[in-house]
Amino acid sequence: MHLLPEKYKLRVGQQVDYGERLGRPSCEGAFESTGTHLHLARKYNGEWMPASGPPTFSLGDWDVIGEHRPYRGKLYNRNSGITVEACACVNDNQISKPPK
């Protein structure tokens, strides 16, 4: 995900609404990228926290499952039971948000 501050005008600490567009998927600029991808990170009270928690890092119906090594995490969908790996080179790694 590439954030586009010049277009979306996001400010540090700004709250965003569910479904609000924050950027666009892209594979540009990456050395070995073969498709669109997303890196997850979070900061709380000025401190970086592992995406794998605790507390659980949830994005809609998806929970982050970390293996405490870079590029080894997974996303688990609580509704469908689907698990997708961060670096799996498979065609079914298409994460999407269901329509409202």
Provide structural commentary:
With 100 residues, this protein is mainly beta. The protein has 2 domains: 1-38, no CATH class; 42-92, no CATH class. 4% of the residues lie in helices and 23% in strands. It has one helix at 5-8, and strands at 2-3, 23-24, 42-44, 47-49, 58-59, 62-65, 74-77, 83-85. A 4-stranded antiparallel sheet has the order 5-6-7-8, with no helix packed on it. A hairpin with a 2-residue loop joins strand 3 (42-44) and strand 4. The mean pLDDT is 70.
Structural class: mainly beta
- Provide the domain count: 2
Number of strands: 8
Low-confidence runs = none
SS element count, helices: 1
**What is the string of SSEs from the N terminus onward?**
EHEEEEEEE
Mean pLDDT: 70
End-to-end separation? 22 Å
* Radius of gyration of CA atoms, rounded to a whole number: 14 Å
Largest sheet: 4 strands, antiparallel
Q: What percent of residues adopt helix (DSSP H or I)?
A: under 10%
What is the topology, as strand order, of the major beta sheet? 5-6-7-8
Coarse morphology:
globular
Into which percentage range does the β-strand content fall? 15-25%
